[in-house]
Amino acid sequence: MKYLHGSSNQDTNEIEKAITDISTKLAASTSEKHTSEEEEASLWKRLGKLLLDAGEYAEASRIFRKGAERCPTDESLQHHLKVYNAFHIDNETCETTEDLPPLDVTNMSKDIFLTLDVPPEAIPEEVIQIAKRKSEHVDVQELSKLLHASKEPILSKVACKYIINAAEKATAIKGWTKDRHLQAPTCDIPAFDLENEVVHWLKDAMRNCLFPLLAKAFPKAMNIDHEKLRIQDMFVVRYDADNENRRQGFKYLKPHEDESIISLTIALNDMTDYDGGGLFIASTGDLLNGDAGTVLGFAGKIVHGGYPVERGTRWILMKTHRAKRVGMF
Ligand SMILES: O=C(O)CCC(=O)C(=O)O
Ligand SMILES: [Fe+2]
């Protein structure tokens, strides 16, 4: 087995040993009748997480899906399967019942992102390790370019409204989820719970428009190839000020790291709709925000949070990505 992110030989050996250990336990538990589904699910999840740590994303995904198949009552394994089915299965067809709003990017070749640096000490270890794989010499100046804000909207206001409406329509039936992200709980609805045609439209929009733009914006040393970026999770988040009537959303999101290589937020409503709010970057103290349709892309492992909303509702579409490892060995 080859590893992308083993930070030292010792770490790599430990991960490899743990993977072998859990694989053996799993082999035993799948043949033993007395292992409970809960115990087995926990083994699949531990193995999947270890493979993620080792940079074996495709294999981790296969393990999570296998676990979901074997443990139909485990919510987080089922969640993984739903994300996979919604965004990674290419050849299904979708009946579109209404005209979907167009994307607004007029000239994809122009430099659409404004890039901000993080201080060298805030460059995540994961990013440094990827760069070291490419070259022994790491250019810290280049590698610190990990925050990107679009200078203009990438989605039209009609498209943003369309996504908010789809989220409101779906949550009127299914409700909001508030406990999917244990480290950083948001009030959200996963994109796969929106209507099918919305999911397809979003998937196309991301693949054809946002991925190429984003991949170009990040440091070359991060080796981000847009064709190899995979959506890890995508959800619509609402933040509501404390004093809102019928308040649903949380007021803020505490500083945290995402599990992703790249994270992205798209503002879905204008800043005049609320006071406060925005993406807070702990290492620089920057508060980044924009009107409907603007995009913020950042390395997921940079510590960030959602700034408190003091009036009204802030809506964003949040998306996290992993890069499928290809061509590195
Ligand atoms: O509110 C924001 O802009 C950040 C959201 C976020 O970091 C998350 O959902 O993980
Ligand atoms: Fe986050």
Automatic annotation (TrEMBL):
Protein's UniProt keywords contain Cytoplasm: no
Keywords: Iron, Metal-binding, Oxidoreductase, TPR repeat
Any Pfam family matching the protein: TPR_14
UniProt repeat feature TPR, residue ranges: 41-74
Molecular function in Gene Ontology: metal ion binding; oxidoreductase activity
Domain Fe2OG dioxygenase: 230-323
Gene3D superfamilies: q2cbj1_9rhob like domain (2.60.120.620)
Similarity section: Belongs to the iron/ascorbate-dependent oxidoreductase family.
Name of the protein this chain belongs to: Fe2OG dioxygenase domain-containing protein
Organism encoding this protein: Chaetoceros tenuissimus
